[in-house]
Specification:
This protein is mostly beta strands and 197 residues long. The chain is 11% helix and 43% strand.
Length: 197
């Protein structure tokens, strides 16, 4: 599209509506962004890998005070083909311990919450370039009705990494539903603003 001059700059932005929402449709915009889909200004962070949408994460916290990751900066990568948020298993296990989540009995690396407590769960915050990007329980809990039985699944799942690789967080559409996302390849950066729902 760039080489055909159909898009003036190598940028696209993505707005995803909420699950089971009667609000506005999801939107993919080539060549720019639309402020009608977000609140506040975009915050930007540089990409750390030339062929992916990977960037540095300063930390992951629960309720602005309980740190989940080490003091060393971590990495995260945006992935629109992944519905969940995946993180290093030990960090995800600690996160759910702090949130009161429990491992699912049959699905490995998956966690569930007591549905009666979901509305009182604290935010999970990704700290990116010094900015806090909070996810409310509405963002990280998926309620599923299975034959009349409601199960509250966490949208944050664990991954095991080989010892010779650096673990990263994979931020799928569960994260991008909460944040309008600008993918700016020309300036090697991504931008985030709270999505307007």
């Amino acid at each position: 599209m760039i080489s055909q001059r159909r898009v003036p700059i190598p940028v696209f932005s993505l707005y995803l509506n909420r699950y089971n929402s009667n609000g506005r449709d999801s939107m993919l915009i080539f060549g720019g962004s639309d402020r009608d889909y977000c609140t506040g200004g975009l915050i930007f962070t540089p990409l750390t890998a030339p062929r992916s949408w990977q960037f540095e994460v300063d930390g992951v916290e629960v309720s602005s005070r309980m740190k989940v990751v080490s003091d060393e900066p971590g990495r995260a990568e945006l992935d629109t083909s992944t519905p969940l948020i995946h993180g290093p298993m030990e960090e995800v296990r600690m996160l759910h311990y702090l949130l009161g989540g429990k491992p699912h009995e049959k699905l490995p690396r998956t966690f569930v919450f007591d549905c009666s407590k979901v509305d009182s769960l604290p935010p999970v915050e990704f700290i990116v370039s010094g900015y806090r990007l909070p996810l409310s329980s509405r963002d990280y809990v998926i309620k599923e009705d299975q034959d009349g039985q409601i199960t509250c699944f966490s949208a944050i799942a664990g991954l095991y990494w080989r010892k010779d690789t650096t673990p990263i967080w994979i931020l799928g559409t569960a994260f991008m539903r909460a944040y309008y996302t600008l993918f700016d390849k020309g300036n090697s950066r991504v931008g985030f603003a709270k999505a307007r729902h």
